[in-house]
């Protein structure tokens, strides 16, 4: 797909990976609407990007928003949906574990209500993460949610055709989601990636390149694109 002149709706598009994707798509000539619960996080997002407030967990509000923005050509969600539980499952607060699935419910809402107004040759891109297929200690909630996202995309792809749906799966990425600063931040990422084939954290721009590829390549659907520094094979 040539994104020049295309209308792109991007949830979670005001920080981190989502904002990087919005800027790359806008640089290619796309007309991007970046949506999040707090659009002010984007600051000045740059030319070709407009900002809107929205919560992927609110199905009724989403339906109204989609009608307002319709029609469009690309639908992307990198929205986290909320907090995610970390730690061993057998000592985990079950409300926290359940809340981690807000990401999955948010994606389901975006696809269920958003594809109604998506062009027949349009595409959907979701974001999961390497824990979906390689669990590390304390990541059982991330694994469960990510696995659900990837299975969902594979399962729904035939229903959506000729529209396409794909998932981009980041590894350890240096984004604002990690609140550490200075040396503490550097040490965290160094330790987290020291055994990876590419022993460093990825950047939001590198993951955004995977999202752009999923949009542009019209011969892929129902698949997962890994941008993980070789984490899965480490």
Report on this structure.
This protein has helices at residues 16-27, 59-69, 94-100, 102-114, 140-160, 182-193, 204-216; strands spanning 7-11, 31-36, 49-53, 72-77, 118-127, 164-170, 173-174, 202-203, 224-227. By secondary structure, the protein is an alpha/beta fold. Strands 3-2-1-4-5-6-9 form a 7-stranded parallel β-sheet, sandwiched between helices. Helix 1 crosses helix 7 (204-216). The longest helix is centred in the middle third of the chain and has 21 residues, at 140-160. The radius of gyration is 17 Å and the shape is globular. The model has no long low-confidence stretch (mean pLDDT 95).
Concise account of the structure shown:
The protein is of the alpha/beta class. 38% of the residues lie in helices and 20% in strands.
Strand order of the largest sheet: 3-2-1-4-5-6-9
| DSSP helical segment count | 7
Helix % is: 25-40%
For the secondary structure, the number of strands is 9
Which structural class do you get from the secondary structure elements? alpha/beta
Topology as H/E string?
A: EHEEHEHHEHEEHEHE
Which residue ranges are poorly predicted, with pLDDT under 50 across at least 5 consecutive positions?
none
Average pLDDT over all residues:
95
Question: What is the global morphology?
Answer: globular
């Amino acid at each position: 797909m040539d994104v020049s002149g295309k209308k792109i709706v991007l949830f979670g598009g005001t920080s981190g990976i989502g904002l990087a994707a919005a800027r790359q798509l806008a640089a290619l000539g796309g007309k991007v609407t970046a949506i999040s619960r707090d659009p002010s996080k984007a600051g000045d997002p740059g030319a070709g990007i407009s900002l809107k407030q929205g919560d992927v967990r609110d199905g009724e509000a989403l339906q109204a928003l989609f009608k307002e923005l319709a029609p469009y050509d690309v639908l992307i969600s990198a929205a986290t949906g909320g907090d995610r539980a970390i730690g061993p499952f057998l000592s985990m607060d079950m409300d926290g574990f359940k809340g981690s699935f807000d990401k999955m419910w948010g994606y389901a809402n975006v696809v269920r209500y958003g594809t109604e107004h998506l062009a027949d040759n349009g595409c959907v891109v979701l974001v999961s993460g390497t824990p979906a297929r390689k669990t590390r200690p304390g990541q059982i909630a991330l694994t469960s949610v990510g696995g659900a996202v990837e299975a969902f995309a594979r399962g729904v792809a035939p229903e959506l055709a000729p529209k396409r749906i794909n998932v981009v799966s980041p590894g350890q990425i240096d984004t604002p989601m990690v609140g550490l600063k200075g040396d503490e931040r550097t040490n965290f990422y160094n330790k987290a990636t020291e055994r990876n084939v590419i022993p460093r954290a990825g950047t939001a721009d590198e993951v955004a390149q995977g999202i752009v590829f999923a949009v542009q390549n019209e011969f892929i659907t129902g698949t997962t694109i890994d941008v993980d520094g070789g984490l899965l094979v480490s």
